[in-house]
Write a structure and sequence with these properties.
CATH class of one domain: Mainly Alpha
Distance between the termini: 73 Å
Strand content: under 5%
CATH architecture of one domain: Alpha Horseshoe
Shape: globular
Oligomer: single chain
Largest sheet: 2 strands, parallel
Strand order of the largest sheet: 1-2
Mean pLDDT: 81
Low-confidence stretches: 1-85
Radius of gyration: 32 Å
Length: 798
């Protein structure tokens, strides 16, 4: 679907993709509008939720509040079992010990006012003693739970951790969570590491490692992220904690795969989680973890487009719960009777509503089951009415308002979005509501209001204190994924509103900002198209041609974004020359351009590609060159050229025509659209190095190979099959550089030998078990390692 909802016509459909991604930057869910394009402004949109958070509220057991209610319960039990811990200081009276226990009871009953009174009294009586640290710990935990994160950090910093090892890991953990809430992930990272270092192979270790994984993932530190993912699997929890902790660990591993976009792998983990027996021995914790797994399974299925399966999985679980669950574990409105049961149930129902909504449409966006679609609306409303305190309720409220927008009830939809904006405490809901409010106003022809509520980057900061820059944590701003997702759409709407108000200069400025800031989003092409139209309306032919040339340039890099706007803009130029300037000759040139651009050349390219790929033997080299030229004549930079050109380079290599092979491989390495190289890019770069090696251009071979090892020897892009010969040629390249350049300084030659020795040693250690590493290779490598080492010693001896 195209995204220019302000230009669409025909059927009026809204699709709500509620696929929020577990554990990223904000506890948020983003909506993004997409649409088909025609002429008249009729809303035809598809809302897209993308993203939740460091710690989304459905992620119960992992959340700081979860640690307060579970891990600290263990702390409470430990204190009860060893009252001597608090009798360490002789001044502690029995009356004060009783007061401390009363405070903990109030704490676990969420009566924070009473609990705080007891704990603060103790901190005034005992200034620097053990009980002071315990009391401050609970005061800090209360501050966190009430959203006073700075106070939480200050309180935790006053605790003498070396004096109370029992508290240390918990203090660091909650302090880390507070740092996250304050937008200080680097401080959080340090605190999480301290927390898990104290309690290895514990729940704190599990929680902290999971949190570290999320921090590194959000920051784009993939090597560190993968290291934490590996550590997560290695943690061995005590057997007496099973099955809850075992299920919890599996759930975390599933979430790791989900976060990496590996939805089937995530589902495989979620399906391993043991289903509760729903009997008198079933605990609330078991149910919470299992319900979280069901929720995440629904998300993964939605991401994979398996809406019917997601809907049925959620429905089956809810039916089992309603029929079998002990009434003591069931809340008043049917959720799990536990601290986070209501929030978790709200998320599950929200995802059920999403799956139900999608399952009511076909792949073309047409409604196939109206009753099911209405059921989705009922479920969204159920979330807002039953669980209004849940974070997701604001977004469900937005979804209900969007239903009114879809029904052409613009006045009611605008009122609904205004209510969300003014009454919801969720920034995510407010960001989306401002956008929905702007859309509603636009279709009510209230362009001034629409202009005001289509927010730009600065207005997001000023009005909602959020930023679309994920690296910004200053000035009290928090990154908001929804705002980042719809920022280009909002700018487009603002520009369109300005244009409708007659402010064409302002509209031009806004349109221009879109391709500058968001060149990889579909609205960028739409914006250039509108710039062309406005320029022509003003009679600015030179400016219109410049805009079309920009589209022409960009369509080569991103045709999926710029090709359609380019052909539309070319059509406008054709019309202008033909009907306004009556310049038939120039109009004909643009007509030819349109024919070239809209002709189905890809089919021809694919045909020539298929023919070219039949010729792989050296004797067929002349035929292959002809086929390549035919393909090149259709499109000089066709992605279908890459594989045949690579084969041609291999033939030249076989024929010992290394210069010709190098020319082709160089061209491929620097291909304009590098993404088109796909999986054979490492092969191309490797062959370029080998060709240079054969030409005795060892320095270039070494440079290309060292760059290769940086990109393909480790991580998700690793090519284990090519790595052994890469290190083989690397070692030999530096060996020959040392042997052939005896005129160079002793230090330089020693450096070459040292590098050769290092690469041969890496080959022997890392790849000795591969097919490449034969006994003959092993013998030669060992001999070369010895020789290079001796030469280093010889060259550097006094």
């Amino acid at each position: 679907m195209r995204r220019s909802w302000l230009h669409s016509t025909g059927g009026y459909m809204i699709g709500i993709i509620l696929a929020f991604l577990a554990q990223t930057d904000e506890a948020s869910i983003g909506f993004q509008v997409k649409a088909s394009r025609d002429i008249e402004p009729m809303p035809h949109a598809c809302i897209y939720y993308s993203v939740p958070s460091w710690l989304t509220s459905y992620d119960i057991i992992f959340s700081t509040e979860g640690v307060i209610s579970t891990v600290n319960r263990d702390l409470y039990d430990a204190i009860n079992a060893s009252p001597g811990v608090l009798f360490h200081d002789s001044h502690l009276t029995l009356e004060d010990l009783v007061s401390f226990y009363k405070g903990t009871q109030f704490f676990f009953n969420s009566d924070y006012k009473q609990a705080s009174g007891h704990f603060r009294k103790l901190t005034r009586v005992y200034v620097r003693e053990s009980i002071t640290d315990f009391a401050n710990y609970y005061i800090g935990a209360i501050a966190f739970d009430q959203g006073n994160y700075q106070q939480c950090v200050r309180t935790m910093e006053n605790i003498t951790l070396t004096k109370n090892d029992l508290l240390a890991s918990k203090v660091y953990f909650i302090e880390a969570q507070a740092y996250l809430e304050l937008g200080r992930p680097d401080s959080a990272l340090i605190a999480f590491k301290q927390a898990r270092s104290i309690e290895r192979n514990s729940m704190i270790d599990l929680y902290s490692t999971y949190a570290l994984y999320r921090i590194h993932h959000s920051a784009g530190r993939l090597k560190e992220r993968d290291r934490e993912a590996a550590r997560l699997v290695e943690i061995k929890l005590a057997e007496d904690d099973a099955p809850v902790t075992e299920n919890l660990a599996v759930l975390m591993q599933g979430n790791v795969k989900f976060l990496e976009g590996k939805y089937q792998s995530a589902l495989d983990f979620y399906n391993q989680i043991i289903k509760p027996l729903f009997d008198e021995n079933t605990s609330a914790e078991e149910l919470l973890v299992y319900e979280a797994a069901v929720t995440m399974s629904c998300l993964a299925m939605i991401r994979k487009g398996r809406y019917s399966q997601a809907r049925k999985k959620a429905q089956t679980y809810l039916q089992d719960f309603d029929i079998n669950e002990d009434s003591q574990l069931k809340g008043e409105t049917g959720e799990i009777s536990a601290g986070y049961g209501r929030r978790l149930r709200a998320y599950l129902l929200f995802n059920l509503a999403a799956a139900t909504y999608f399952d009511s449409y076909d792949n073309e966006g047409g409604i196939v089951n109206t009753a099911r679609r209405n059921e989705a609306e009922r479920l969204f409303t159920l979330v807002t009415d039953t669980y209004p305190e849940a974070e997701i309720a604001g977004l469900a409220w937005d979804a209900v308002a969007w239903y009114k927008l879809e029904a052409f009830d613009f006045e009611d939809s605008e009122k609904g979005f205004v209510d969300v904006y003014t009454q919801s405490s969720s920034k995510d809901a407010q960001v989306l509501a401002s956008y929905g409010r702007a859309l509603s106003a636009f279709y009510l022809n209230d362009y001034a209001s629409a202009y005001r509520w289509f927010l730009d980057e600065g207005e997001y900061e000023d009005r909602l204190s959020v930023t679309i820059d994920s690296t910004t944590y200053s000035r009290g701003l928090n990154y908001n994924a929804i705002a980042a997702d719809i920022a280009d759409e909002a700018l487009f709407g603002k520009a369109k509103s300005a244009e409708m108000l007659g402010r064409t200069s302002q509209a031009l400025t806004l349109y221009t900002r879109i391709p500058e800031k968001y060149p990889q989003r579909p609205t960028a092409g739409e914006a250039w198209q509108d710039i062309t139209r406005i320029k022509l309306d003003r009679g600015d032919l030179e400016g219109a041609i410049a805009a079309v040339n920009n589209l022409k340039f960009m369509k080569v890099r991103a045709p999926e974004i710029y090709l359609c706007p380019y052909t539309f803009a070319v059509a406008m130029l054709y019309d202008y020359y033909m009907n306004v300037l009556e310049d038939e000759n120039t109009a004909e040139e643009y007509a030819k351009t349109l024919l070239r651009e809209t002709g189905n050349t890809e089919i021809i390219e694919r045909l020539f590609y298929t023919q070219a790929m039949r010729y792989t033997d050296l004797e067929d080299i002349d035929i292959l060159k002809v086929k390549i030229e035919r393909l090149r004549n259709q499109n000089f930079r066709s992605p279908y050229l890459i594989a045949p050109l690579y084969n041609l380079s291999l033939m030249y290599y076989q024929a010992n025509e290394y210069e010709k092979a190098e020319e082709i491989l160089e061209d491929l390495v620097f291909w304009e659209d590098s993404s088109a190289l796909g999986v054979i890019e490492p092969d191309i770069r490797f062959r370029l190095a080998v060709v240079n090696f054969r030409m005795k251009n060892y320095s270039k071979a070494a440079r290309v190979l060292e760059e290769w090892t940086e990109d393909y020897s480790e991580g998700s892009r690793a090519r284990e099959d090519l790595s052994p010969p890469v290190y083989w040629y690397l070692g030999y390249s530096f060996y020959h550089m040392a042997e052939m350049n005896k005129h160079q300084s002793v230090k330089t030659r020693a450096g070459y030998y040292r590098k050769a020795k290092r690469y041969f040693e890496h080959l022997a250690i890392r790849y000795s078990q591969t097919d490449f590493y034969t006994s003959e290779v092993d013998e030669r490598v060992k001999r070369l390692i010895t020789y290079c080492g001796e030469m280093v010693d010889e060259l550097l001896k006094p």
